[in-house]
Structures are given as structure tokens and as C-alpha cells.
Design goal:
Elements lengths: L2 H40 L4 H36 L1 H5 L1
């Protein structure tokens, strides 16, 4: 298997992983920043207050984007399986 093919497949896998995880990471980031601003303004320093909203935001992003994530990962997997003879040569 040529090196360029391996590099291309690994690059595509990394790009797919980043694209699939990005909505949840952004939701957690936005929720974390908003909670931090709220905690700073109100002087409430409770660790649970920082964790629960982030967990809810990440779960909500996951629930909303799951069909898209499934289609993206299924498409990537199907493409890998379809290109399997090319990899074996």
C-alpha cells in the first residue's frame, strides 16, 4: 500500500473525527464560558454549577446532531469498505 494512500486515509479519519466531535466540544465550550461568566458575576463558586450545565449542553448537542454524526461515520466506513480492494494491493 503506497504511503500517500495511508496518509490520505489517516487524514480523512482525523478530519471525520474532528468534524463529528466539534458540535459537542463547541456546546461544552459555550456552556462553560457562560457558566464561568455567571459564576464570576454572582460570586457563586460551586463546582456542581460548573459541571451540570456543560453536561446538559453536551448531551443536547449529541442528541441533536446524532443523526448527522451517524450518517457521516457510516459514510466514512462505507467508503473504507468500498475502497478495501485498493488498500490490499
Amino acid at each position: 500500500m503506497p504511503e500517500a494512500l495511508v496518509v490520505g486515509v489517516v487524514r480523512q479519519a482525523i478530519e471525520t473525527a474532528i468534524a463529528v466531535s466539534l458540535p459537542m466540544l463547541l456546546a461544552g465550550l459555550v456552556a462553560g464560558v457562560l457558566v464561568s461568566v455567571f459564576q464570576t458575576v454572582t460570586s457563586i463558586q460551586d463546582s456542581v454549577l460548573g459541571f451540570i450545565p456543560r453536561a446538559v449542553a453536551i448531551f443536547a448537542a449529541f442528541a441533536l446532531t446524532f443523526p448527522w454524526m451517524l450518517r457521516t461515520l457510516s459514510g466514512f466506513s462505507a467508503d473504507l469498505i468500498r475502497r478495501l480492494p485498493e488498500f490490499i494491493r
